[in-house]
Amino acid sequence: MHTAFHLYNLIMGVLATAGLGYLFYLHQYEIEYNRFVFVTVTGIVIFALVAPVIEAVVQPLVHFAHAVAALFIIFGLYDPVNNDLRKEQWAELLLKDPTTIRKPSEWMVPMDDRILELFHTSDLVLTPALIAYNIDYSREEVNRRLSELEEHGLVDRVERGKYRITDLGEKYLDGRLHVALLDNDETTESDHVNSESEGITGSDDESPDS
What we know:
Layout: H1 2-26, H2 28-33, H3 35-57, H4 62-77, H5 87-95, H6 110-122, H7 128-135, H8 139-151, E1 155-159, E2 162-165, H9 167-173, H10 179-205
Antiparallel strand pairs: 1-2
Helix pairs in contact: 1-3, 3-4, 7-8
Pfam families: HTH_Crp_2
Protein name: HTH crp-type domain-containing protein
Region (Disordered): 185-210
């Protein structure tokens, strides 16, 4: 009976840890800039997964594992340096509108979010006419924005007049992609290629002194 109980705890711990791991994967950007989330979740993982393993192998140490887990959770929820319960930080993280964590670039306009959200919610290949009908913009405006989004890798044209959202577009919607940084990387790479091309051209133009 004891073994079955330990096995049950271990299975539940593995499932909980897998769920938290998937959550980490989906919200890497948020966790990177909110270390208290990582600390809190580490405590939960120790409690849910590590403690059951210790209980099954070295039962007397399980209370030590629980204590360590509690410390991680406490320091994730409470900032002892500033005597702060982090209520506002957790409320902002859990209740905020997803659009507030997105990092658009200077070339982007609010319509771009509407277009990408429609792709995301429908999970379909869409035409400019269908997009325009659903977001109340003209087809010409939608066509212009789709061209921009395709150029920057947020949507993909599967065939003439038909588009779908890309992985980069999904990451942008989730707040996991800073489009401006992506643009900077592309610009830097383009400048590097151009400078190399200019160097090659320049060397071809030079002729040895006779």
